[in-house]
Amino acid sequence: MITRETIIKDILSDVGNEEYVLALWLEGSDGTKNLDEYSDIDLVCYTKEGYTEDAFRRLDECLGELGKVDIAYEQPGRRPNNRYKVYHLEGTPDTLFIDVTIQSESYPVSFIKEDRTVVPTVLVDKAGIVKYQNIDRESHHSQLHAQLARAQDIYRQRSRAVKYTKRGLFLESLIYYQKYVLNPLVDVFRVIYTPFQANCFLVHASRDFPTEVVVNLESLYAVKNVKDIAEGIILADELFRKAVNEACSMLSQS
User: What pLDDT does 116 receive?
Assistant: First the structure.
């Protein structure tokens, strides 16, 4: 039987032993210790320069020896030193994707000590690749200010959603409601609650946000008609105002 553990073990003993592979580590739920029966595998392979193709070829062979690969999708448009490919093996749980990022020496790697949402679980590190550093406070502060300002600029265009609710057009109302109301609201919540992962949008929002915030967001997203959207905008206005004030206060003290 192919399990999550056997996949990781085989990749480590096979791909990890290649001379051009400098390090292998896991991210995602392995690092944050949130593994459950639905967890996938988030693997990073770090190679010598010019060997990303060799690493993918060896990984393809390794997984093919384990079982039939029924998904092998590489995300297009990525740089040669930072490629990403998703695999799945037939007969394994539908949720057991193998998300593989292969990077090379020209792609710098460092982890932020203050950020506990991205934690590497090192499988092998032959060259001291996995390193931690403290965050650049000034640069990070500037990025959060920019995200907050951008969210406010977008939210000021909420009338794009409002006008479609008045026209009674649900689909148009929905897309602009999400773009000009909900998206910037979530971005401000990220500034407040996960400043070191401020660009994660709704990924792990149920884990990262306070219960009250999660409940409010669930309500705002659970719209079924134009009336729901119109009422959602009213609630979002109040939440956005309070969130912006809190974010401004937080940033002024940091």
Answer: 81
